[in-house]
Specification:
Blueprint (H helix, E strand, L loop, with lengths): L18 H9 L7 E4 L3 H9 L7 E4 L2 H7 L7 E3 L14 H7 L4 E6 L3 E3 L2 E4 L2 H12 L1 E8 L1 H5 L4 E4 L6 E4 L5 H10 L3 E3 L8
Helix pairs in contact: 1-2, 2-3, 4-5
Length: 199
């Protein structure tokens, strides 16, 4: 399948390490015709804004904010994962949401709002971890965005290790030790500042 395309002109003006530039890197991974899952999170909310017209994709999300951003896009079929909205995460992550995901065959997912404690990714909320694991188990290609804040987030509930994540989209603002720890753990990195180069 062909990758979806967009202009580089706007991307070139973005500040390195910004959510928008990380979102551009994510959008570039999406293939025409894919069924894409966008998990909650600020970068994924930006991804929703950047999906180009005529991408030929469909999108599922558990985030009301992302669903609202895509609701008027007549060119992108949208599935809103239902259930009770968690006050802690602002997304649907309960048993009903998990049951919906388990009936899906997702081509590409973008897991949001993760912490990192090499060699694994994790989150603070138990229900959020269960939901994310379900999404990962139903997805052919899985990605996560890692920023310096990811290293400061408490990861009491583990989500996945390197074998479950195809690519980590790594912010250019990560320091050398953070990059080294991700690589040593076995994660494949797509650097936001030069994201055609996978290392």
């Amino acid at each position: 399948m062909a990758m979806i395309t967009h202009s580089n002109s706007v991307r070139a003006t973005e500040r390195p390490g910004s959510r928008r530039l990380l979102a551009w890197a994510a959008v570039d991974l999406i293939q025409h015709g894919e069924f894409v899952f966008l998990d909650r999170g600020g970068v994924n909310r930006e991804v929703a804004d950047l999906l180009p017209q005529g991408a030929g994709i469909s999108v599922a999300t558990n985030s009301p904010a992302i669903a609202a951003a895509l609701a008027e896009r007549t060119d992108i079929p949208l599935i809103m994962i239902g259930g009770k909205v968690s006050m802690e995460t602002g997304a649907c992550i309960d048993a009903e949401a998990i049951a919906s995901v388990e009936k899906m065959n997702i081509d590409r997912c973008f897991i949001g709002s993760c912490g990192v404690s090499p060699p694994r990714l994790g989150v603070t909320d138990h229900a959020d971890a269960l939901f994310k694991r379900s999404v990962l188990s139903r997805s052919s290609n899985c990605h996560a965005v890692i920023t310096p804040d990811s290293f400061r987030q408490h990861t009491s509930h583990l989500i996945a290790g390197p074998s479950a994540i195809e690519l980590v989209i790594a912010a250019s603002s990560l320091d050398e030790d953070q990059v080294a720890s991700l690589r040593a753990a076995g994660f494949r990195l797509l650097r936001e500042s030069g994201y055609k180069d996978v290392k």
